[in-house]
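Page 47, continued from p. 46.
Same chain as before, 471 aa.
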Amino acid sequence: MNLKSIFKKFEEILSLPEDTKPERVRKTTLFIVSSLIGLAGFIWSAMYFLLGYKLSSVFPLSYSILVFITILIYLKFKAYGFFLFVQLLLILTLPFFLQSSLGGFSKSGAVIVWSFLAPAGALFFAKSKRAYTLIFCYICLIILSTITNDFWVKNTIPVPNEVQLVFYLMNIGAVSVIVFIAFIYFVNQLEIVNLDVKEKNDKLESLASKLSKYLSPQVYASIFSGNKDVTLDSYRKNLTIFFSDIKGFTEMTDRMESESLSSLLNNYLNEMANIALRYGGTIDKYIGDAIMIFFGDPESKGVKEDAIACVKMAIDMRERMKELRTKWELEGIVSPLHIRIGINTGYCTVGNFGSKDRLDYTIVGGNVNLASRLESKADPDQILISKETFLLVKDAILCQQKGLLKVKGIAYEVPAYEVVDLLSNVSDASLENRKIKEDFDGFSIQIDTSKADNQRVIKILKEVIEKIEIS
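Result:
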């Protein structure tokens, strides 16, 4: 049986089932230290008795007897507080009386050094407040011993120098050995605790990593950093909301095997998620082939910057979808899969919704519904944005007005704009071609097709042509 197994057996005997690992370590260490000092007491008592210091032999013998009585009481009742109090009191006071009976510091071999184990033990086994009290008492005993030292030197039997030297060696050596053995156990247990903590931390990291797959990275980071409370809480914030789905995906589900369909869907969602995270979007949820993303919480670069990032993300998604469509066609998937996107900017209620046992971090409100409705109105490969979003992105994104749209769930017609491309990708000549300007006697016309409601322009021009023909 090795030392570790012995210590483990002591832990099982001395501890309660509900004790934590640190509590088990403290109780076992106290038992080991008390037992060693108790055994030393018998040896010291026998030595003093054989050397003729019969009165002095009573103190270590009394200590040892009391120590083992309290150990038996502890084993019976597991009264740790009582056990600790008695041990600290005995080790603090008895060395002082023993030193006095032998004739002071030199004649006793500085036996009062044993008393230092009381405040040191309190620091480890009890609260620091008790350790402060005991170190104060220890210093007081040393001062008292110094004051009364001459009295005890004169009024006790002499101790030969050789014997004093032995006393010094035994006292200092024994205290050092006991402290060293206690530290061996403590360090051993500390290593075990550290390994246990590391194992638990590894498990927590693994669990956190798994949980992170179910949360948007921004939400995950804010929760685990402590910046966001996991409570039923919500607030109003100006956000840019994105909805997308795949046109024709529902019909395709009836023609594909579930394994192939799952592979295609996961491939698509993974590609779109990578783009969303690159632009800083918070992925709210996946609903089949539909994706809901928003910008502005828990992280925001500003309302305008968030809107531009969202539209840029949508353009990249549309381009990536073209590449995926080519890839899928090579794999034998001939269905014409096209993405359609709707984007809106406005105030929403964002936060945790649900019950105290099951929360969902999401956004709600009329502006969320509008983004969804714009997506449903979009044609394949088309990105429709609301006027609110357009006003924020028009300096960076080339858009084309689509006129007023009647959407489900909204009583009034909604102005919408189609995203063409980034302005940085469009040449000056191309922009100029979107402008029509003619001016001569009796006639003047100026149209910017990138900004005008082209459907309305066509309607007006037809009416003008009809009037000219009649006249």
